[in-house]
Amino acid sequence: MRTVLLRSLRSAAARSAPSNSHLLRRGFSSESVPERKVAVLGAAGGIGQPLALLMKINPLVSKLSLYDIAGTPGVAADVSHINTRSEVAGYAGEDQLGQALEGADLVIIPAGVPRKPGMTRDDLFNINAGIVKSLCTAIAKYCPNAIVNMISNPVNSTVPIAAEVFKKAGTYDERKLFGVTTLDVVRAKTFYAGKANVPVAGVDVPVVGGHAGITILPLFSQASPQANLPEDVIKALTKRTQDGGTEVVEAKAGKGSATLSMAYAGAVFADACLEGLNGVPNIVQCSFVQSSVTELPFFASKVILGKNGVEKILDLGPLSDYEQEGLEKLKPELKASIEKGIKFANEN
Q: pTM for this one?
């Protein structure tokens, strides 16, 4: 998969080149790239700021709207100086939320508190659930047709919260609501490439299930290129992928979570959504969506992205015995997290 950063650097280099190669690679002429407004909610935070930077250098973005409860005008002023296509506007405070959202094609939500050492998922839920509910209520009012990329944790619960809010508002389109699980895929690719001793750029590893702990299930049996790693290595890679967030939290020693890698993963997924919106064919990503792949109402698996969001949800494919066992183990925990989100949305 082409990275946003490399493609955007090529875009910058193309200023003095005879052709706009980054646009031609997408199958567009410079005149036909659609106008796309992207709103980032939580843009002054640890994920939001690097994500704002990465979206500013994405040539598919024409308007970049940055929102947070405070601090956003400064972030907007900073990234607005970057000599790329998009116009940037910063909005701060609830009274400016509507203006930030109006006309958005894509809304990315990294808002809320990050995980800290010793913090349980319940602690995270108790703070972020209310924030997500409030933001989604505004999305339903001001940009009901936008694609929504949910980054705020716990994603296994915040996506169901968003779905319930949109249902109550009469705006729910299950094709347009995504839980961003791309960081799990990014980690699985990186860790697998290291053990398989292959270039990471050519690696693909599907990751299914959810976006927390054992609900994260990397399908290394479907990885390409296949390296036929021994089972003990596969188990260790699975555990490391599941615990990747904790690894970063502990390495930062209480001074942050996986903000930079999450911003990168969020930008990769947002870019894929924009490509799908613009009609680029065969855009496949893993994401946590409303699904009938399993008996659970939401599940992460490979999806094909298109002009209306989810075009098709792909089956899980053949699983190894270890992966099948992991699938059955994750279901009760994922089910409980989904139900917790639905209950919160309906009771608050």
A: 0.92
CA distance 341 to 210: 14
How wide is the angle at C-alpha 63 spanned by C-alphas 31 and 75, nearest 5°?
140
Q: Are 165 and 133 in contact (CB under 8 A)?
A: yes
Phi-psi region at 209: left, alpha or beta (left = phi > 0; alpha = psi -120 to 50):
left
Tokens of 30: 């410079």
**In this structure, which amino acid lies at residue 284?**
V
Residue 259, token pair as written in the block: 């903000």
Q: Determine whether 239 is exposed, middle or buried from the number of CB atoms within 10 Å of its CB (0-12, 13-18, 19+).
A: exposed
d(CA 215, CA 76) in angstroms, rounded, equals 36
- How do residues 42-78 score in pLDDT, each as one tens digit? 999 999 999 999 999 999 999 999 999 999 999 999 9
Q: Which pair of structure tokens corresponds to residue 257?
A: 């979570």
Instruction: Report, as residue numbers or ranges, the catalytic residues.
Output: 211
Task: Answer whether 75's CB lies under 8 Å from 55's CB.
Answer: no
Tell me how far apart the alpha carbons of residues 142 and 158 are, in angstroms, rounded to a whole number. 20
Rounded to 5 degrees, what are φ and ψ at 29?
-85, 165
Q: How far apart are CA 50 and CA 257, in angstroms?
A: 13
DSSP code of residue 107: E
3-state SS class at 40: strand
